[in-house]
Specification:
Elements (H helix, E strand, L loop, with lengths): L8 E7 L15 E6 L1 E10 L2 E2 L5 E6 L3 E2 L10 E7 L3 E2 L8 E8 L1 E10 L2 E2 L5 E6 L3 E2 L10 E7 L3 E2 L8 E8 L9 E2 L2 E2 L4
Parallel strand pairs: 3-9, 10-16
Antiparallel strand pairs: 1-2, 3-4, 3-5, 6-8, 7-9, 10-11, 10-12, 13-15, 14-16, 17-18
Length: about 190
């Protein structure tokens, strides 16, 4: 018989083969059955546009199946950016059967707190957004007259997914100033004193 398989199918079985021709036309029938074939598909995972091949999955599905889900493989500090080729309709060409999942670094707030003589001034607190693993080395100087910078905490700050850890503390203390005491006798300064 002539094989008439179509794309995505495979031979399941043949009935009446070999066929012995008889005088009854109803018995002179060879039946050829095809069923949908199975094909591999892959799910690739990208982090900041770079594939992590260790996370790639190769799965199997039936021709024309529609795949509309994947295993979430998000990692700390990242968020889903987009998917490509989802939902996926399984074809006979494994090169076309690829779902791509893209994650990017997430954004998190960090806080800069300002302290004057160990007391926080909430009115000066800044809440700023940055990307995961950014390194923050600078902050706005909010020194006030009569004070000087004493110290900072958490500078440089590496942004993490735990926002309570994303805090820079800036401490100011009253500055010391020189003063002079002058002694006058009969309106004239005595420099020796």
């Amino acid at each position: 018989y002539q094989d008439k398989v179509i794309d995505g199918y495979k031979l399941e079985r043949v009935e009446n083969n070999p066929l012995t021709i008889t005088s009854n036309p109803d018995n002179n029938v060879m039946k050829i059955y095809y069923i949908k074939d199975n094909f591999d598909y892959t799910v690739e995972y990208y982090y900041d546009e770079t594939i992590d091949s260790s996370k790639t999955e190769t799965l199997n599905a039936t021709f024309a199946d529609i795949i509309d889900s994947y295993t979430d493989k998000n990692i700390t500090g990242y968020r889903l950016d987009r998917t490509e080729n989802l939902p996926l309709t399984i074809t006979s060409n494994p090169a076309n059967n690829v779902i791509k999942v893209f994650y990017v670094k997430d954004n998190f707030d960090y806080i800069v707190e300002y302290y004057y003589d160990e007391t926080i001034d909430d009115s000066k607190t800044d809440v700023i957004n940055a990307t995961y693993l950014d390194v923050i080395e600078n902050y706005e100087d909010k020194n006030i007259t009569g004070y000087r910078l004493d110290r900072t905490e958490n500078v440089p700050l590496t942004i993490t997914e735990v926002e309570s850890n994303n805090v820079i503390k800036v401490y100011y203390v009253k500055d010391n100033f020189d003063y002079t005491v002058e002694y006058y006798y009969d309106g004239n300064i005595d420099s020796s004193k």
